[in-house]
Amino acid sequence: MSLFFNRISKFTVRRDNARFFSSSLPQSPYLLLGGKKLRDSPEGQIGKHRFLDPTTGDRVYSSEKTVPKELNGQPLLGTSQGWVACLENKDFTVRLTDLYKPWISSSPKVISLPSIGFKPSTHATEVSLSSSDPVHDKDLVVAAKFSEYQLSVCCDSKWTHIDTPYSLLPPSDLMYSKRDKAFYFTSFKGLYMGSLDLTDNELDFQELRLRDQPKIGGAGWEMLDKCFMSNHLVECPSGELFFIKWYTDCIRRQHGEYILMHGITKRFMVFREDEKSKDFYYTEDIGDLCIFLGKSEAFCVSASMYPGLKPNSIYYIGPGIGSYDLATGIVRSFDPPRDSREPSLVPYPYWLNPTNPIA
């Protein structure tokens, strides 16, 4: 199977420290916050991107970069394996780029995939890549969700749109398993787990069996029942698969003459897959691991590889930005400072996975 493509070219609350990114620094997960345009050039806009380093809580600025003209104004669909997917609004061509990786100083790569053939019907777009090196991997497969009831797959220079019997859920539940060489996603309410095996291109579903539910009093379950719940899947570096329930509450607040609705993270529940039975067992201990959840593909890293990350934690974006300690349930939230005078080049934040960056 080959894909023909055209190569176009400890969180601290309100911490306001800033530094410029150095390629000599260890490559760790970064939160893409935005960027600012500095000037125009014949090749495209020149600007700097702004990140948050979760190991220190510092803001990090990239060196000056040229945004290729073909990416100007294109909305971001999501991130996977450190690459960002964009959509051309006119012909619905999907492009992959490493432009936003902070350790890429110049000559960003842009890969054009075929047009999907229609305007996406959902704002909850998800993208997942089968490889962290889409430039050189000729067997690259890209999976995406452009509508609620379809799984779209790009390989052999074309998109195939596969109807599913269950509605796919909002962002971050679509993921690629290196262990199984398959794409996974959850069904409505997380009752089933869907998979697309790349060895035979068969779409399959299995019931999600959750064991050892946490001991929560009646009032606790009643509170969670009132929350919005999203379901997520993530694979750790060793190949273990985790299923995550994310509970968020909506708070009503009076602000002068206005009533504001504010989302807040209440709790995460993590279930670890048993390799033999394929059942998922509740756990509050994932050891040295950190899970990153947001508006794109979830990923997992070892905290000991990136000093400053808190092990046994989930780092999340939206609603709110912060980290959650699985053992204690303590939420550490923060609000990155914004400069209203700074026109943003990025509409909303994304976590960037440091896996095998391309220099």
From TrEMBL:
Occurrences of domain KIB1-4 beta-propeller (ranges): 64-318
Family annotation (InterPro entries): F-box_BR-signaling, KIB1-4_b-propeller
Any Pfam family hit: Beta-prop_KIB1-4
Coiled-coil annotated spans: none
Name of the protein in its database record: KIB1-4 beta-propeller domain-containing protein
Protein's organism: Eutrema salsugineum (Saltwater cress)
Organism phylogeny: Eukaryota, Viridiplantae, Streptophyta, Embryophyta, Tracheophyta
